[in-house]
Amino acid sequence: MPQPIVETAYGRLQGITAHGVRAFKGIPYASPPVGDLRFRAPAAPKPWDGVRDASHFGPFCPQPGGGAGGVFGEADGGAGMSEDCLYLNVWTPEDTGDGALPVMVWIHGGAFETGSGSIPAYDGTALAARGKVVVVTLNYRLGPLGFLQLHSLHEDFAPNAGLLDQLAALRWVQGNIAAFGGDPESVTVFGESAGSMSIAALLAMPGAKGLFARAIMESGASQALSAEQARAICAGLLEELGLPPQEAGRLRAMPAAELIEAGERMKRRMGGMGMPFQPFIDPATLPVPPIEAVRCGAAAGIPLLIGTNRDEGALFFRPDSPSVPDEVIASAMELLSGDHRVKPFISRYASDFEGRAELMTDLYFWRGALEFAMGQSSHAPVWMYRFDWTLPSHPLLRKAVHAAEIPFVFGTLPFLQQAGLQIPPAGFALSEQMQEAWIAFAHGCPPGDPGEWPVYESGERATMIFGDHSLMVKDPDADKRLVLGI
């Protein structure tokens, strides 16, 4: 059976076909950001002659841990880890029909330090086949290579390089996705954790205007360091490396592994709980904190589907977690969120691991999602969800932890089965329900029947609770919400 070939603006690609879906992997959307291009804005990819093999993923970006994918596995290891990592992957139905299909572009999480678009749980086959959509996953520069504020030292360094990578990938989609049967005017960005926080930034970035029509944010909202914080982190990393600021140019010649390890040492000195590498406020790329930008209408007209998992923090605080003093957890929450309204709430939560987990869920994930939803609701329709599904027999999934919804959205629960988990039939039914909601939204429709899932507004605060028996709830945990001042 001949394998599919498509013509892009940079050359021809040959992918593979399986399960009624054509997959094209390891597509360069920018030139390798190596050598003199390290710390610069992404440059356009170079064209190639002949037909490029697109049957395997490209390398994933340098990161601690060698490419671990967190809860649901590791990146495809065939290509390994390399600074030459700006690749994306496309899944498209073999039969695209008569018209162009909606496009769903996934931005992975990993605290802006780990992850890739080639983690098995992000495989786009099931979603593309079920939803008649084109699915795209991508890599972007991480850690100090993607989010170190060097621009203040010399204009030769690009600010927020990791976000600029995401913009470059979205521009590639605009210029090339029609060749795969996709509609560049019907692009939905969706992402989880740092991917969702990236989308919050994209909604606020002037450079992202017109690159997507809808957004889905899973377990992550407004997130950005102040310019002052970003400069301080840069100074800390240079100190860790023994470099004076005037010699920052030497960073371009250092092995990537040395930069990553220095970042890890600095993070440990900071207590290990913060995110030193993340988007930061910068006049040219991200001039206003995302929450302020959306409140002022920066993303007017872009519908939003947003939500959290009921027990987000239980991924980070477990029975064997070391005890964390109040002042340390307060400092960590402030550093993570940039929010200084943390200390008054800490005494309301138990000091054991379960209390710390609940505090992180409420103050970092849930409150941020509610604030972002309300900020956007004045400018476009917003739908809110909460993911409650659990697997009581599993030591981790006995709670609805951070990232647990991802295989339900992608339809990759069989991957969990291969890892030994026994998923009951109700779990597969829930996955179908969530996929249908995400797919409907990507097609430009409400994610559910308006009578069953109304838009999120300040009065009723309608929230779809996804679980074994999903239902719509008005203003869940209202008492707690009021205490948090939302």
Q: How far apart are the termini?
A: 58 Å
Going by helix content, strand content and strand pairing, the class is: alpha/beta
How would a textbook summarize the main sheet?
11 strands, mixed
By CATH, the superfamily comes out as Alpha/Beta hydrolase fold, catalytic domain
What's the mean pLDDT score?
93
Order of helices and strands: EEEEEEEHEHHEHEHHHEHHHEHHHEEH
Output the number of helix runs: 14
CATH topology: Rossmann fold
User: How many whole angstroms does the radius of gyration measure?
Assistant: 21 Å
How much beta, percentage-wise?
15-25%
Main sheet: strand order: 3-4-6-8-7-9-10-11-12-13-14
Which bin fits the share of residues in helices?
25-40%
Can you count the beta strands?
Answer: 14
The outline comes out as globular
The CATH class designation is: Alpha Beta
- CATH architecture assignment: 3-Layer(aba) Sandwich
Uncertain residue segments: none
How many domains, as an integer? 1
EC number: 3.1.1.-
Protein name: Carboxylic ester hydrolase
Family: Belongs to the type-B carboxylesterase/lipase family.
Keywords: Disulfide bond, Hydrolase
Descriptive notes:
This protein has 486 residues and is α/β, with parallel strands linked by helices. The model has no long low-confidence stretch (mean pLDDT 93). Strands 3-4-6-8-7-9-10-11-12-13-14 form an eleven-stranded mixed beta sheet, sandwiched between helices. It has a three-stranded mixed beta sheet with strand order 1-2-5, with no helix packed on it. Helices cover 31% and strands 16% of the residues. It has one domain (5-221, 284-312, 365-483): 3-Layer(aba) Sandwich (Rossmann fold), CATH 3.40.50. It starts with a strand and ends with a helix.
